[in-house]
Structures are given as structure tokens and as C-alpha cells.
Design brief:
The structure holds two protein chains of two kinds. Chain A has 28 helices and 25 strands. Chain A is an alpha+beta fold. In chain A, strands 4-5-10-7-9-8 form a six-stranded mixed beta barrel. Chain A has a six-stranded mixed beta barrel with strand order 16-17-23-20-22-21. In chain A, strand 4 and strand 5 form a beta hairpin. The longest helix of chain A is centred in the last third of the chain and has 38 residues. By secondary structure, chain B is an alpha+beta fold. Chain B has a single domain, classed as Arc Repressor Mutant, subunit A (Orthogonal Bundle). In chain B, about 60% of the residues lie in helices and about 15% in strands. Chain B is built from four helices and three strands, in the order H-E-H-H-E-E-H. The radius of gyration of chain B is 15 Å and the shape is globular. The chains are: A alpha+beta, B alpha+beta.
């Protein structure tokens, strides 16, 4: 123990004594020599001989010192320290080179760190506030559907029996809680639509979540209808300014008044949090789910069928395992218990499955997929950066060829030199990591506004450092071995042209650059494509999105009867039309900000008498000046009048597209049978009284749609859901306060689910996609910059290698323009081949993205050729600069070198 | 290096140096002379081995170095054995003896 202490102390003293110990050793060796000389003189030698003999016997003071250094405690540590100091000094001298390498790497590293932070936040971090998460399991009772398994739907009336049976039957669990999620309208007092979880009263106890203030649900709050609510920490902070007196306060949720009994701990947003959503804002007793929950929110597995029975919910279960229980045992037990208790009801038993897994943010397959998607682009940029750095290091090594050869000739071992070059790379990589951290941090700040918390915690920083280290190995080792692989005599004796590497090495370098160019053009093309596609989504043609204000309502959450709804909407339309600054106002069961084709609640089946035609057609109600607001002209026939409004519509207006699809254009006056595609279909016979212009859909196609004077009754959406569309004379955003006032005057309880201009609404809806698309485009530009640095580096390198040859040519009479052309002839094929490959890559990426995101494929030639043109200009610049430098060589000076 | 002169393995050298400075505080050159003298020139130690050995002893806390004057008034570094060094010496002596005895037994017995 004491020995270790002594050694440690000695080591530390040496690290910080600033070379004093070295001085002391020199003095000691000098004294040794003097004593030796004295003794030799005493034995009869002349002073000169004695000194000569003594020095020979010593074998060199430096060598002795080196031996001492090698042998003492922490020698390796010290010599690495020395290498690092040396690396810092030599990199400091070549600051331009260092800056290029660090810049090349830091951008890719920053992107990788952001991806790490996202993965960490989305997958690795436990749910905040949850106790012993490793003992929590989610119990899934699934129904296999043609589209994949989804959580079994349960009518709320059946739920209490099922829950009791599961809770009592599952002996491997300490306790079991249930929950279902949907959106609710909350008045705070501004009405807002918030993601809510309806939970069993023991939900917080099972998860072990302690409230920040107040209490959680009491057992009796699960049985009777108790109007109590727990709000999220974020809501408490944002809406109530962290006022502790919020406990006991009453808020409106739907048509009910709820008392806030507690605030969830900071960060707790439920246990099914989607990585790009903010999560649950309010928790309510599960028995109230039908009373205030939005009937359209079926849960989050995304599979909603058009024949979805109304009023059934995806109820999920989360349990805490007893000590010693295992996930597979819980699953076996769930299968038995669920079968015995008849959870499955009328679903055929072969279509039912149970699934138990540890509570985590995402399950395994999803996690792998997410990681792959998230990491691909940053890794590509990082790889491009590494290739760049490797190329730059090769260039530098060629400049330092003589220095390295000299050191090899003087007896430095190859390993020692490789180590030193590797340390240089490591210093560069760490420099890049240090630069990447703040870059990544600011990127995360941008994303933080609408995503899950993604802290730069120890895990992420460690991941970043490991990546930086691997990066250093990746880009540093090959050049290091290549640089030290030469025979010293060759490098010292020969001209630089010989030491510059073989033909195959230069081919590898150029292939690397061509690969970089291809990758970056692929990224750039894909990013641009995605961005422009989303921009076009955000701008529906034919409307001035900033002059259109949308206000959406769901009076069903207020339990309005259809007569009450109609009265409310009539007053709303009338009031809105009279507001100053309003050009036209209309109401529809459709929301213009939603796509024309994907609105399940507004789909109808049409029948001209010979069976259904055209699959499921888009429909919607249209009252007031709806068509005028949308800028759709009435082409034939008439608009709806007040007398048309009935419980079941008798008349309809179709778009020109639908008219030509079904009636070959002669639609006016024709009759149609209309029905809903849902279970318990409603049907009506309508006569077509008007034809309007077709609105333009997402992919620029003309939309076929049918409109009714009032909402067509649908089992999953009654007439209570409507959106007010207002076209204003000026910017529509300024109308928002007047609309709020108007709504409050008609009914102070009625929540406006969303109130924004079409512009804003679409921007918010596509916010994630836009950020991701912009990030991809930005990374593409970064990659392009990196590729051009790479081309510049390789071209400079080759010019440097051919200095003598170029000088000879010029001395023999070659003109400057000939030299430039010669250099470009070498550099440009790399760019051209890379661009061709990259173009193909970009087109493939585009087709993939388009078919994945929009369901249609087509190549956007404009953006792609724009990207290619940008690439061409940058590449030309990157190769012309070294070419011009070559042309300015002074043959006299070059040929006199060496 | 002449073949009849034996190289001294590192651990053994440390033991010998420790033994020499245990008799009296000594500087590097003196240790060298003493070692040659005691082994009748069989062990030839170069400064390249001696100085690392002295540093090792010092770093392990077995010897302490201090500057002083030599017999002929040169400024030299004297090494003195420490308490820990004495214990180490005793231990190593014991160790050495048991090894040599064992080796001898094998050699004689075979």
C-alpha cells in the first residue's frame, strides 16, 4: 500500500514539476561522469583520455536518461503526455489543416450526438418519476387483424368485470392498473385540446409515481363518477405558474367540472409516450372516459378500421411483478386468466393473443428500426467527415514525409511513430468532439420545443467520446501506417513524387472522394426533395393560407344534443359572417387543414343504382359561404339553401372531378344512394343540385368529393364536430380574438379545439417532418461541403506530389492554362463519377421517401438538378484552386528544391 | 560487452544496490565501484541500468536520495536506505536464499 502511494506520489510530482526532475537527473549523471574521470586520472590516464573513456562507458547521457524515463512509475503515461504536448504543438503550427480536420469531423459528430441524445431520450432513459421500472410490465391483450395486431377494443361497460377478473387472477403481479388514452377539451380558461389518460385509481400507486403536490386517486374514485383530475408538471408550470393553490381548483373538461387533486412529478407524462410527442397532460378516472373523452381517439397503435364499433376503447394494462416473477411467467398466466374470464368476448379465440413485456419506451423491433433510421444520416455524414480527415492526413503526411523518414532513420521505432500520429488523430477527434458538443446542444435546444426531453447526460457524452475515439482510429490509423511504411532511405533520397504513394493508393483516395460526392449528393437530393414536398403540403394551392382562419369544435365532448349543436353552429356562422374584416365564413364537418383523402370520419360510399362506385369517397357538410371561403366556384346548378337542411340530406353538391368520374360530367339532377362504410350504416338518397370546382389535393390531383347541406350522420362522428372556415380581407390571424369573443358569447363553455390560420395549422401539424426534412437538407449541405473539402485536399495533394513534374513541364514551355487543364482533367472525373452515382442514389432515395410518405412516386427534377448544379459549382471551385496554385509555380524555385 | 561478464537481471540488481546502500549511504558512481569490487568484476553494470535501478528504489520508497559532497568535493546525490527499504531487503534476502537453496538442491540432487 505504502509502496503504491510512493510510486503514485513520484509520478504526480514528475507530471507537475515542469522538468525539474529531468534537470536533477542530468546533474546526477554529470556528477557520475566527473567522478569516473577523477578516478581514471588517479589511475594514471591523461585527463583527455579519461574523459573520453568515461563518456564511452556512459554510453550517452540522453540514452541513460531515456532508460530511466522508460523504467520509472507511470512511464507510459508520461510519454503519452509528451506525445500529446508534441501533437498540440505541431497541430498548432498547421492550424489551417487542424481546423479543416476538426470542422470536417465536428459536424458529423454533432449530428451523431443529437441522434444519440434522441435515442437516449426515446429509448434508454427510464420513465421519469416511475419507481423500479424493471419490475413493471405492460400486459397486452391483442387482436390479430389483417393489418397486424392491435390492442383489443373493449366497451367501457364491460371493462369493470374484465379489470376485476384480471386483477384478482394475476397472482404473479403485486398489482395491476389500467388506462386508456384520448384527447379532451379543457378550459383553462382558454379552451384547449389536451392528450389525456383515463386511469384506474391505483395507476399511480402501481407505477410508484409520487405527486409533486396534492394527492393521487383514491380507490373510491374508480367506482363512482368522481370529477377529479391530476395535471402534468408542464401544465402546472405553463398554465398555473406553479401556483400550489392549484390543488382544489376547478377546471372544465368537456362538459364537466373537475377538481384538480394533484400535480404529477416533473417529467412524468405517462408510460406510452411517443418519442416525438409531448405526452399526457392530464389524468382522469377511467370511468369517465366515455363522458369526456374524444370518441375518435382509439389509442396509439394506429390501426383504425372504418367498421370500428363506436364507444369501444383500447384499454391497456400495466402491472408490477412480485419479487421473483418473470415476464414469461406473467405472459403464460395472462393467457390462462384472460381465456378464463372471457376478456375476448365475441372475438374468435384464434385471432386473440396476449403479450407481456417489460415496461419500456419502445419494444425491441421498433427500437432497432428507430435507431437504424435515426443514426443512418448522421453516421453517413460522420463517415464522409472521416474520409475527409483521412485524406487531409494523407496530404499532411506527404508534406511531412521527410520529417518522418528522418525520425525513422534516427532509430525511432515504427510503432512509436504510429502511436504518435494516432495521438495526433485522437487530439483532433477530441477537439472535434469539444466543438461538436455546443453544436449538438444548440441543435437539441431547437428540437426541445416539441419533442421529448433529450438531455446531454453522461450516457450521451460517453457515447460521443467513444464515437470520437473510434473516429480517430477510423481516419487516423491508415494514414499513420501508410506514412511510416516507407523506407527511410527512399523517402530521404527520392523526390517527393516518389514518396507520394503508389498509383493504387491515389486511386483509393479518388474513389473515396467520389464516394463522398455520391453520398453527399444523395443526402442533399433527398433532403431537398423532402423539404420541398413538405413545403408544398403546407401550401394548399388556390387559397391564401394566411387569409384563412380555422376554428374547430367538438361539441360532443360537451354532450350537446344535435339540436343544441345546430343552434350553436347557426349562431356561430351568423356571428362570424358579421365580424368586421370577414369576407366570407362557412362551416363544414371537414377540416381544410386535414388532407382530402385520409379523413375516415368523412368517408361515404356512393351508389348510382348498380352497386357501390369509386370506393370510399371524401364527403363533408357545407354551410354558409363554405365554397367561397375555399375559393371554389360554383360551375353548375345552385348552392345549398336553408330549406335543404334536414336530418338526412336530400340534396348534394359534387366536385367537377366526381361528376366526371361517376356521371361522365352530366351529374346535375342525378340521384345517388349515400351510405357510411361503418358498422350500422346510415343511408340516404340525394339529388345532385350543384357542381363546384375540384379542390386540389396533396399530390396536386383534383379531388373528387361530395358535399351535403348538413353533416351526414356517421356512427363515429355526429354533427357535433365541425370547423368554422373564415376568409378575411387582411391577415386572418388578427381575427382570432374576435372569434374567441364570439364563441364565448354564444357559449362560454364551448372549447375551441384549434384556432389558427390555415398557414399556422399546417405548419404546426407538419412541424416534426419539416424539422427532420430541414435537418436532412442541412446535413446534405454539410456533406457537400465536406466532399468539396475532400476533393480540394486530394487535388492539392496531387498537385504537391507533381510539383517537380509540373515545374519541368513549365520550364519546357507549358503554358499556365495547360497546367490548369491538366490538373482539372484529373480532378473533375472524380466529381463527375461521384455526381452520377449520387444522382442515382438521390433518385432512389426520393422514390423511397415519396412512396413511403405520400404514397406516390415521382422525381422532382428541379430540386435534384438544383442540388447537382450546386455540387458542380462547389466541386469546380474545390479543384480549380489547387490548379491555379499549380499554374503559379515558379519552375526555377521548385527545381532548385531538394 | 565481454562474455565472461554477466548481465544482471533487473530484480537482482535492485536487491544488490539496496544491499550496498544499506551498508552506508552512497552515490551512483560509488555503488557501481562497490558492485564491481564485491563481485570481482563479474557483474558489469552500466549507468543505463544503474540509474533506473536507483530511481526505482527511490520511487518505491526503499531509498531516499539527497544531494551532498563527495570525498573529492564534487556535488553528488547520495542514496540512503529507508525503513521500508530495510524490510524489503530482509524480505528479498530471504526470498533469494530460498530460491538458491531450492535451485542448489535440484542441481546437486540430480
Amino acid at each position: 500500500m505504502s509502496r503504491l502511494w510512493f510510486r503514485l506520489r513520484a509520478m504526480l510530482r514528475r507530471l507537475f514539476d515542469g522538468g525539474a526532475g529531468d534537470e536533477e537527473l542530468s546533474a546526477e549523471i554529470r556528477a557520475y561522469v566527473e567522478l569516473d574521470v577523477d578516478s581514471k586520472i588517479r589511475s594514471g590516464m591523461t585527463p583527455e583520455d579519461a574523459r573520453r573513456e568515461a563518456l564511452i562507458e556512459l554510453g550517452g547521457a540522453e540514452q541513460v536518461k531515456e532508460r530511466v524515463r522508460e523504467n520509472r512509475a507511470g512511464a507510459w503515461c508520461e510519454s503519452i503526455f509528451r506525445d500529446i504536448r508534441y501533437a498540440l504543438r505541431s497541430l498548432g503550427q498547421a492550424w489551417g489543416f487542424s481546423a479543416s480536420v476538426i470542422a470536417s469531423l465536428s459536424l458529423g459528430l454533432a449530428a451523431t450526438i443529437v441522434a444519440f441524445a434522441f435515442i437516449n431520450g426515446a429509448l434508454l432513459r427510464p420513465f421519469p418519476g416511475v419507481r423500479d421500472q424493471d419490475r413493471l410490465v405492460t400486459l397486452g391483450i391483442l387482436e390479430n387483424t389483417p393489418l397486424g395486431p392491435r390492442t383489443l377494443r373493449t366497451a367501457l361497460a364491460d371493462y369493470p368485470d374484465i379489470f376485476r377478473a384480471l386483477r384478482e387472477g394475476m397472482t404473479s403481479l403485486e398489482d395491476l392498473a389500467s388506462f386508456t388514452e384520448s384527447k379532451v377539451a379543457v378550459t383553462l380558461p382558454e379552451p384547449r385540446s389536451l392528450p389525456a389518460a383515463f386511469v384506474s385509481p391505483n395507476y399511480f400507486d402501481v407505477l410508484g409515481v409520487q405527486p409533486e403536490i396534492g394527492r393521487t386517486f383514491a380507490p373510491e374514485e374508480g367506482r363512482a363518477e368522481s370529477s377529479v383530475a391530476i395535471i402534468s408538471h408542464a401544465l402546472w408550470t405553463g398554465e398555473f405558474g406553479r401556483d400550489p393553490s392549484v390543488v382544489g381548483r376547478r377546471i372544465h373538461v368537456g362538459a364537466q367540472t373537475f377538481q384538480i387533486i394533484g400535480v404529477a412529478p416533473q417529467g412524468f407524462r405517462g408510460t406510452t409516450q411517443d418519442p416525438i410527442e409531448t405526452g399526457v397532460e392530464i389524468w382522469l378516472p377511467i370511468v369517465l372516459a366515455d363522458l369526456v373523452g374524444d370518441p375518435l381517439s382509439f389509442g396509439r397503435d394506429g390501426i383504425v378500421f372504418l367498421d370500428e364499433p363506436p364507444g369501444e376503447r383500447a384499454i391497456r394494462y400495466v402491472g408490477r411483478m412480485r419479487d421473483g416473477s418473470r415476464v414469461d411467467r406473467v405472459e403464460t398466466e395472462l393467457g390462462v386468466v384472460a381465456g378464463r374470464t372471457g376478456v375476448f368476448r365475441d372475438v374468435p379465440v384464434e385471432r386473440v393473443a396476449v403479450e407481456v413485456s417489460g415496461l419500456s419506451r419502445l419494444d425491441g423491433a421498433d427500437a432497432v428500426e428507430l435507431v437504424a433510421i435515426i443514426l443512418t444520416v448522421p453516421f453517413l455524414v460522420l463517415v464522409i467527415g472521416c474520409v475527409n480527415a483521412a485524406n487531409l492526413l494523407l496530404v499532411r503526411a506527404s508534406r511531412r514525409g521527410r520529417e518522418i523518414a528522418l525520425r525513422l532513420a534516427l532509430g525511432a521505432s515504427r510503432l512509436r511513430l504510429v502511436r504518435q500520429l494516432a495521438i495526433e488523430s485522437l487530439v483532433l477527434a477530441i477537439g472535434a468532439a469539444l466543438l461538436a458538443m455546443p453544436l449538438a446542444w444548440s441543435g437539441l435546444q431547437l428540437l426541445a420545443t416539441f419533442m421529448i426531453p433529450m438531455p446531454l447526460d453522461a450516457t450521451v457524452v460517453a457515447g460521443a467520446l467513444v464515437t470520437a475515439f473510434l473516429t480517430a482510429l477510423g481516419f487516423g490509423l491508415v494514414p499513420a501506417f501508410q506514412a511510416t511504411g516507407q523506407h527511410p532511405s527512399a523517402a530521404l533520397g527520392a523526390s517527393p513524387a516518389v514518396s507520394g504513394g503508389t498509383r493504387s493508393q491515389s486511386r483509393v483516395r479518388r474513389a473515396l472522394v467520389a464516394g463522398q460526392v455520391a453520398l453527399s449528393l444523395g443526402l442533399l437530393g433527398a433532403g431537398f426533395q423532402l423539404t420541398s414536398a413538405l413545403e408544398s403540403l403546407a401550401e394548399p394551392p388556390g387559397t391564401d393560407p394566411d387569409r384563412l382562419l380555422l376554428a374547430s369544435f367538438d361539441l360532443g365532448q360537451l354532450r350537446f344534443s344535435s339540436a343544441e349543436s345546430d343552434a350553436f353552429y347557426a349562431a356561430l356562422l351568423d356571428g362570424a359572417s358579421r365580424l368586421p374584416g370577414v369576407e366570407a365564413a362557412g362551416l363544414s364537418s371537414r377540416d381544410l387543414a386535414r388532407s382530402w383523402s385520409f379523413d375516415a370520419a368523412n368517408g361515404v360510399v356512393l351508389d348510382t343504382g348498380g352497386g357501390p362506385v369509386g370506393g370510399i369517397s371524401a364527403s363533408g357538410s357545407a354551410s354558409g359561404d363554405y365554397f367561397k371561403v375555399l375559393g371554389l366556384d360554383l360551375l353548375e346548378g345552385r348552392d345549398f339553401v336553408a330549406a335543404d337542411r334536414r336530418e338526412l340530406p336530400g340534396v348534394a353538391i359534387v366536385t367537377k372531378r366526381l361528376a366526371s368520374q361517376i356521371f361522365k360530367g352530366a351529374a346535375l339532377g342525378q340521384s345517388l344512394r349515400v351510405s357510411t362504410p361503418f358498422r350500422g350504416a346510415v343511408e340516404a338518397y340525394v339529388q345532385i343540385v350543384g357542381i363546384v370546382e375540384s379542390p386540389v389535393g396533396l399530390s396536386g390531383e383534383e379531388v373528387a368529393a361530395i358535399f351535403f347541406p348538413s353533416p351526414f350522420p356517421s356512427p363515429i362522428q355526429n354533427g357535433a364536430v365541425r370547423t368554422l372556415h373564415v376568409r378575411s380581407k387582411g391577415p386572418a390571424a388578427s381575427l382570432a380574438p374576435a372569434i374567441r369573443e364570439l364563441v364565448a358569447r354564444i357559449d362560454p363553455q364551448a372549447p375551441i379545439l384549434e384556432l389558427a390560420t390555415l398557414d399556422q395549422t399546417i405548419r404546426t401539424r407538419f412541424a416534426h417532418e419539416r424539422v427532420l426534412a430541414r435537418a436532412a437538407a442541412l446535413l446534405g449541405i454539410v456533406a457537400l461541403l465536406l466532399a468539396s473539402i475532400g476533393l480540394y485536399g486530394v487535388t492539392s495533394y496531387e498537385v504537391a506530389m507533381r510539383r517537380r513534374e509540373i515545374a519541368v513541364r513549365m520550364a519546357l514551355g507549358a503554358q499556365a492554362d495547360l497546367v490548369v487543364a491538366m490538373v482539372l482533367r484529373q480532378a473533375l472525373p472524380v466529381a463527375i463519377i461521384g455526381s452520377a452515382l449520387g444522382g442515382v442514389a438521390a433518385i432512389v432515395a426520393e422514390l423511397l421517401i415519396q412512396s413511403e410518405v405520400f404514397g406516390v412516386a415521382g422525381v422532382d427534377v428541379t430540386t435534384l438538378s438544383g442540388a447537382a448544379a450546386l455540387l458542380a459549382v462547389v466541386m469546380l471551385l474545390a479543384s480549380i484552386l489547387p490548379a491555379l496554385r499549380a499554374a503559379r509555380l515558379d519552375p526555377n524555385a521548385v527545381l532548385r528544391e531538394a | 560487452m565481454p562474455s565472461h561478464r554477466k548481465d544482471v537481471v533487473q530484480g537482482t540488481l535492485d536487491l544488490l544496490v539496496l544491499r550496498i546502500i544499506a551498508a552506508q549511504p552512497m552515490h551512483g558512481w560509488g555503488v557501481m565501484q562497490r558492485l564491481r569490487h564485491l563481485t570481482d568484476d563479474v557483474f558489469q553494470v552500466t549507468p543505463g541500468s544503474l540509474f533506473p535501478s536507483l530511481r526505482r528504489l527511490e520511487e518505491n520508497g526503499w531509498a531516499s536520495g539527497a544531494w551532498g559532497l563527495s570525498e573529492n568535493n564534487r556535488k553528488v546525490r547520495y542514496y540512503t536506505i529507508t525503513k521500508a527499504g530495510q524490510k524489503q531487503l530482509a524480505r528479498e534476502k530471504q526470498n533469494w536464499k530460498s530460491i538458491t537453496t531450492a535451485v542448489e538442491k535440484v542441481l546437486e540432487g540430480a
